[in-house]
Amino acid sequence: MATANHGVFSPPPPCDIGLENLTQFPEGRRVWTCIQCGTCASTCPYGELMQYPPRRIIGMLRAGELEKVFTSDSLLNCVACYACTAKCPRGIDLTGVLLPLVKEQVLQHLPQMPAELQKALENKLRYGNPMGESPRRRAAWVKTAGVPIRILSEDSRPADALWFVECYFSYYPRGQQCARATAKIFNALRLDFAILGNEEKCAGECGRLSWERGLYSTLMEYNMLVLNKYRFNRIITSCPHAYDAFRYRYTALGFDYVITHTTPFLAQRLNDLKPLLKRQADCRVTYHDSCCLGRHSSIYEEPRQLLQAIPGVKLVEMTHNRVNTICCGGGGGGMWLDTYYKAKGNERLSERRVKEAVATGADVLAVACPYEISRFEDALKVLGYEKKMIVRDIVELLAEAMEV
Amino acid sequence: MAGNIWVLAEQWRGQLSDITYEVLALGKEVAAALQSNLQAVLLGHDVRSLAQSLGAANPVLYVDHEALANPVPEIFAQALAYAIRAKSPEVVLIPLTNVSWEVGSLVAAKLEVGYINSAKDVRLVDGKLQVRSLLYGGKMETIVAPAQSPAIVGILPGVRPADLGRAEASPLVEELTVDLPATSAVHLKRYLEPEAGDIDIGKQDVLVSVGRGIQNRDNVAVAEELAEALGGAVCGSRPVIDQGWLPLSRQVGKSGAVVKPKLYVAAGISGAPEHVEGMKNSELIIAVNSDPQAPIFNVAHYGITADVMNVLPALADAVHRRKKEVTAHAA
Amino acid sequence: MKIIVLLKMVPDVVEELEVGADGKALDTEFLRMIANELDNHAVEEALLLKERYSGTVTVVALDAPEVDDALFTALAKGADRALKVADGDGTLGTMAGAYRLVQALATVPGLLPADLILTGAQAIDDLDGMTAPLLAHYLQLPQLGIVTQVNVDAASGIATVLREFPGGVRGEYEIKLPAVLGIQAAEKPPRYVPVSKVRAAMKSQAIESVSLPTAADGGAGFSPVEEMIKPEVSEHAQMLEGSPEEIADQICEVLAGHGLL
Questions:
Q1: Between A118, A132, A215, which is nearest C195 by CB?
Q2: Radius of gyration over every alpha carbon of chain B, rounded to an integer in angstroms
Q3: What's the rounded Cα separation, in Å, for the pair C22 and C45?
Q4: Residue C216 in this model has a pLDDT that exceeds 70
């Protein structure tokens, strides 16, 4: 396949692009070059469940019948995994440009929004996190980190790195374990880092890709104001979705900081890291490529380099790896639509993926995205595999090996 | 000697509700503290016989009127206000349930005096009457001193044990005639009975109750697992029923059922008064809530501050294991 | 059909509540206000009735922190007008607040008489009264609270409503309009409104201000709060600690001790 969009940097879609003015922008005009090959639909993990997969959406657009898509719940099945975008032979940015615009309309036409998704969006707007937790508790985990963590609102001296922790690592106990691991690794590497603490709010990417442009803009404007208060050389984030947002969307508001995710950042420090990896792991590990880091940004080898640096780790690959990875189902609002999918009898993507992971015979499913931890642990339990396989974020495996 | 202490006896569909006795028990204490008399006010139509059960009061003021045959809050408030003007009690205690919900506010407004809502206690402190009320879903308590006479107070269920408000003796009954309009702008047409559920939660020994904190419909299954392991059933607080995660027959609280099981596990329930009134008399209450400030911990015997979805499965497992051990021993 | 909805801002309990320095009210430093949950249901019910019977919905609130957000959200959801009433010194209780709202409604040309006046059946800060019955009293209108369904027969001017009773029983009532209803639950959950719509409403629509002479207060009987206390949670429950497995074991011990296991 020649010109598939293999995670090439996609320039950010202009803020004022809309369905009514698509042809005024190059990425909009590209939508009209669709050859209706259907690769998008067949590569989409939920393609066979959609009444309107991307191909048909473009067909309806051309036929002037896009309204029919707005009143269908077909797009609720889109998990914004970039699979269609990665494989489209015309290089149409479906996930970044077309689908969010159509989803926005679906949102407005839905007679009843699924309750959990509604709550998550309302919580994000009001509290800066989908859980509905108080923003004043966002940095509460810091006390349990075991290493000093500087909070910029308390000590605003410049830092080398601003660590953008994100919601799941801040509020969820399982995520906090990963946050602690990350802090310990940063500390061991003598990284000069600081966090925003309670000033941090969700980067809002899931708003962009899950229907809610207004929510996204609100969070983006807020975060830009907060970031502009402090001085740092780079932003490191634990969340691939936040990475996606900062790298591709925030540029529209003038974001020009160096942005990286923990995984490629640590991979660059492998020389410093390797001598610290003391404990023998002796396990087989399979790595799940996350959609945002992997397909969208082509970060495939760095996580594997980190895993292979851990003594005793034997890396095995799932059938669908790298650009072919199967989404865990958390993106595009999917994190809050599981009950909705279940009611429709859809197989959960996380279960589909976990079956593949278990089939490799690995003991550990390594991940690099906060959504994946709870989704895959849930799936293992549902399928009865909790004794066969554990889920670990890469930072947890590294911290264990470092014995910090 | 202070004026009388009044309790509005709550009768609904021909029966006196339990809360009537709970408030009478409180009224007894207040009357004793103020060295005054406890009296009850019974409003209705053709319900004089109910007055016999109000022996703690002396006397029972009975107002009979056709307009009081069905619960129309503003008519009941009109009748009560009339009685208050006629007899000038010092304190009027009004039960706070769905039956008498608005009566306190309406009576106070009609008499142009203050009303104190949501009271969990009324006491005499340093010679002054003090009302302790719950606010913000139970997260704060306020102490309020009634500013006028009569003091109109809305009393939450569970303020005292109902038994302390019952008495063997038959009270004197004094009939009071009240002028009420023959017709009203509000009229009850009929009652809609709840659909019979598969299970009567009022009869269960063990209830695992879920609230907003379980986050989505799927997690009800985890509660069901635990309930099954313990030989009980699942019920829930209002938000869970409103979302359709459980049927109405499983609702516990102000608009639902009042239950008194041997074990009540409250999972992800904050413990607002509207729910607590439905389960406070459970023999053993174990509450799990990720919020350490959740008011449910004020009524629970054991509390766990943790993610409900971590504790419930672990508990279901542990219970299963114990049961296996027990049967293994027995074998 | 003309519908008015009264909306009240109450403390947001997601934030931890603390008692303020004077020991009688909440500490306001980190306090956030949010629209009373049941008032959101009242707004939803009003919009559903507007969709069903056509008419106008006017949302009215006393001035309070974050009230503009709540009013613009209501406009974005489909309300036709939003009014904000100057609160005076911001310490009005429910009774005085209801009285003030009634005074305000009377001064706005064309607002009264309305067919239906809706508000939430209760609020978490209802210490000295409940808004619905108080509004009804001051407006001299019939009222019914704890309502979960409303149907209107315009020809006869009668609304048929369902009111909740204990034990899952519901009472079907007929009430002559105009009337005040205390809404316990709208017939559908309060709808979601996209943030972009709220922002659009902020640009294209306005909240009308209503001011009243500060001195005017009714609700004669506000009893002063002597003290506000944050209950010690450990007052009652014995707290169990540990990992979920450890906690599960401890609970099993307790259950065994009670003969439940």
A1: A215
A2: 22
A3: 39
A4: no
Q: Indicate the pLDDT class of residue B243, thresholds 50, 70 and 90.
A: confident
Choose, out of B110, B290, B302, the residue to mutate when testing the contact with C (most C CBs < 10 Å). Answer: B302
ipTM: 0.93
Kindly state the helix (H) or strand (E) to which residue C34 belongs, with its residue range: strand C33-35
In a domain, A168, yes or no: yes
Give me the DSSP letters along A286-330. EEPPPIIIIIIT---HHHHHHHHHSTTEEEE--SS-GGGPPP-S-
Residue A250 domain flag: yes
Is residue A301 domain-shared with residue A365, that is, in the same domain?
yes
Average pLDDT, chain A: 91
Residue B302 near residue B289 (C-beta atoms within 8 A): no
Chain B residue with Cα closest to C23: B142
Tell me the H-state helices in A189-324.
205-209, 213-227, 240-244, 262-268, 270-273, 301-309
Q: What angle do CA A380, A384, A388 make, to 5 degrees?
A: 70
pTM over 0.80: yes
Buried b (16+ CB within 10 A) or exposed e, C16-38: bbebeeeeeebeeeebbbbbbeb
Contact C216, C86 (CB under 8 A): no
Q: What's the token pair of residue B276? A: 């607590």
Segment B127-139 mean pLDDT: 94
- The range of the structural domain enclosing residue A75 comes to 19-109
- What SS3 state is found at A340? helix
pLDDT-derived band of residue A5, with 50, 70 and 90 as boundaries? very low
Nearest C-alpha neighbor of C40 from the set C99, C120, C108: C120
Question: What span, in angstroms and rounded, lies between the C-alpha atoms of A194 and A164?
Answer: 9
> How far apart are the C-alpha atoms of C179 and C132, rounded to whole Å?
10
Tell me, yes or no, if C162 comes closer than 8 A to chain B by beta carbon. Answer: yes
CATH, range B201-330:
3.40.50.1220
Q: Which residue has the tokens 């698509």?
A: A22
Domain final residue pick, A69, A91, A109: A109
Please state the domain count of chain A. Answer: 3
**C-alpha Rg value of chain A to the nearest Å:** 21
Q: Select from B216, B307, B310 the Cβ nearest to the Cβ of A116.
A: B216
- Which of these, B132, B6, B128, lies nearest to B62 by C-alpha position? B6
Whether residue B24 contacts residue B93, with contact meaning beta carbons closer than 8 Å, is answered with no
CA distance C113 to chain A (A): 32
pLDDT single digits (tens) C33-87: 999 999 999 999 999 999 999 999 999 999 999 999 999 999 999 999 999 998 7
Partner-chain contact C220 B112, CB within 8 Å: yes
Chain C residue nearest residue B128, CA to CA = C226
Instruction: Give the position of tokens 């079956």.
Output: A355
Question: If DSSP codes are grouped into helix, strand and coil, which group holds residue A235?
Answer: strand
- For residue A345, the model assigns a pLDDT of 82
Domain B5-176 maps to which CATH number in 3.40.228.10, 2.160.10.10, 3.40.50.150, 3.40.50.620?
3.40.50.620
Indicate whether A302 and A322 sit together in one domain: yes
Is A9 within the bounds of a domain?
no
Tell me which residues of chain A, numbers 110 to 139, contact chain B at a CB-CB cutoff of 8 Å: 115-116
Domains in chain C: ranges and CATH: 2-210 (3.40.50.620), 231-261 (no CATH)
Q: Quick check: bond before C178 cis, omega within 30?
A: yes
Q: Is residue A132 part of a domain?
A: yes
